[in-house]
Amino acid sequence: MNSSHSFLVGIDTGGTYTDAVACDLATTDVVNKAKVPTNHDDLGACVSAALQAVIDGSLVSSSQVSLVSISTTLATNALVEGVGRPAALVAIGFDDAALRRAGLKEVLDEGAVIFLKGGHSSHGQEMTPLELAPLETALDEIDSRVDAYAVVGSFSVRNSAHESAVADLIRDVTSKPVTCSHELSEQLDGPKRAVTALLNARLIALIDDLLSAVEASMAALKVKSPLMIVRGDGSLVSAAFVRQRPIETILSGPAASVLGSFALAGIGDAVVADLGGTTTDVAVLADGKPASNSQGALVGGQATMIGAIRVHTAGVGGDSHVHNAEFETPQLSIGPRRVVPLVVASQSIDGIRQMLESQARNPIVRDTDGIYLWLRDGATRWKVRSETEEEILQTLKTSTSGCAYEDVITSGLQRNATNRLLNAGVIAMAGFTPTDAMHVLDLDARYEPEPALLGAHLLARQRDRLGQLFAASSVEVSELVYRGLARQIAMTMLRVAADHDGLPIDQIESPLVTEALSASDAQSDGVLSVRVGLNRPLIAVGAPAALYFPEVGRLLNTEVIVPEHFEVANALGAATGMIELSTTITVSAPRRGLFRVHVGEEPKTFYELSRAQEFAEFAAGKELATKMALAGANTYDLSSNWVTKEVAVADRPLFVEAVLTTTATGRPSAISI
């Protein structure tokens, strides 16, 4: 391979923009880049546009592309915003109370839980026979309401036979995707595995739609290279691998961002912040590597068992909805819902400007002023689930381009149904955002500012819970939004710093810390002087980075570095990743002198620890060989680590268990040199 004429292409499908870069295979220097708006109703079109722009023929041709790799915030944003396809959970050997303590209610949405008798012991022995008859009856009742299934069994990581049997039955009866919890994590915490598996099931269709769109775009452009995706830990895997385990792409965008930021800035110890349209992701770089989260990724308030970088994701970005939250706080609320900025939506929807002008003339102030709704392209495929939903959709269908919020929603019941339709991607919303505020302040000039000015006026004249006007002018309310967004980002960065330093994160939002951060805005006349900040530089990336982070740096008293190509850092990180997979196998001891290796559907028993460990290493290598082939690596390096737990009984060591972690690392097969 002549590496000087071979290129890696990285794509980042963000909530607001889809970015693409082409970099030299040998040097990773960026030779071309492109950025196009993300169209959530037609991902294929925006991916194709970004690919075509970066493969323009003059610098990079289709035949020279050795690899296409994607990082995506799709799964992360889906969890933050509560978006996902409906899925049901089959729970084997659990009761309702145990699962709901793990946060299952918030994840289920409109899905259902089917409880079955069954389950194993911690040593993999069947405790209760599996009862499948109730499952067949339940499937007839709920299958029309869900798109996928998740299965969790008691101690299934020690014996997966019951989970596998349930999954086989579901596939035979429904032909729908099934996620087994033991396939995603080797950890014992069953309720947490249930949440992880259910989240994975809800994401399958979303990620599959994205991958299909990318594959179609590559085919149309005659790009024949493999397609890879960035996982939450920063490693790459094939499209086939991710289709089975889409939840592993949560924090894909942040992971790629950290890798790309290090490549661009060349600083090994820093705090990295990536500001997008929907979220702001913050992580710590130490010695050139992102700090990892061994306990599992936490996104949108949901704890998972998916390994990922140690990143904090805040539901605030350039396109976050700014609205009146009079019953929650005396200040404006920013996020977590992403909406289309008024300056963007008004370019293609004439009704938005007409709505804004009409509401500005109306002396009656409503908290829904400046909000516009319309049907998305996929609305025709939605199965209506209530009369209220039907009313909303019929109202929107009467207008070719949508309606003002106040013309659609007239009751609290309708408002709740609208939130569900927004979460499901059936309808779209435009409203005032930080992007609009920046246009009012003349800090952003990409779009015609008049819709932003009207939206700011409507927001400024609203009143908070204390009855006070938000602001005296459009400029003043936009300045409040600008500073409010910067403070939310700064507070997230303080939480990240506290987490990294082992300090109590819940104390970050204490009145003292809040006052210290506020003190950066103005000199206090009080006796007490408190300051907070960062001891490391801040690497800021993402399209709006140059606009917002100078204020964040000022609040945190730290240096801000906005490197070249900052707007496509995620795409660069995606292009330059490696494939890395790990597996964990436990050897337990049901009694002295008996060692049980927990692999597959039936544990293997040995009477010598050395034989058990030898078999465990063989099984780990065999499992990783299969996974690495699916992930896209034909050659790789293996490393193993044993952690043995013993207790002293009568001054003699008693073996409890040994845990083997084996890791495989390699380059994608297409670029192995």
Q: What do these coordinates show?
A:
With 673 residues, this protein is an alpha/beta fold. Among the domains are: 320-481, no CATH class; 579-671. The chain is 36% helix and 24% strand. It contains 21 helices and 31 strands. A 6-stranded mixed sheet has the order 3-2-1-4-9-10. Strands 11, 12, 13, 18, 25 and 26 form a 6-stranded mixed sheet that branches. A hairpin with a 6-residue loop joins strand 28 and strand 29. Helix 15 (434-440) crosses helix 16, helix 15 packs across helix 17 (474-500) and helix 17 (474-500) packs across helix 19. The longest helix has 31 residues, at 190-220. It is globular. The N and C termini lie close together (8 Å).
Topology (elements, then pairings):
Elements: E1 7-13, E2 17-24, E3 30-37, H1 43-54, E4 65-72, H2 74-81, E5 87-92, H3 96-100, H4 104-108, E6 113-116, H5 133-142, E7 148-153, H6 161-174, E8 178-180, H7 190-220, E9 227-230, E10 236-238, H8 239-244, H9 252-265, E11 270-275, E12 280-286, E13 289-290, E14 292-293, E15 298-299, E16 302-303, E17 308-309, E18 311-314, E19 320-323, E20 333-338, E21 340-341, H10 342-345, H11 350-361, E22 372-375, H12 387-397, E23 403-404, H13 405-408, H14 412-423, E24 427-431, H15 434-440, H16 450-460, H17 474-500, H18 511-518, E25 538-541, H19 545-556, E26 560-561, H20 569-575, E27 579-591, E28 594-597, E29 604-606, H21 609-631, E30 637-649, E31 652-666
Parallel strand pairs: 1-4, 4-9, 5-6, 5-7, 7-8, 11-25, 21-24, 25-26
Antiparallel strand pairs: 1-2, 2-3, 9-10, 11-12, 12-13, 12-18, 14-17, 15-16, 19-20, 22-23, 22-24, 27-28, 27-31, 28-29, 30-31
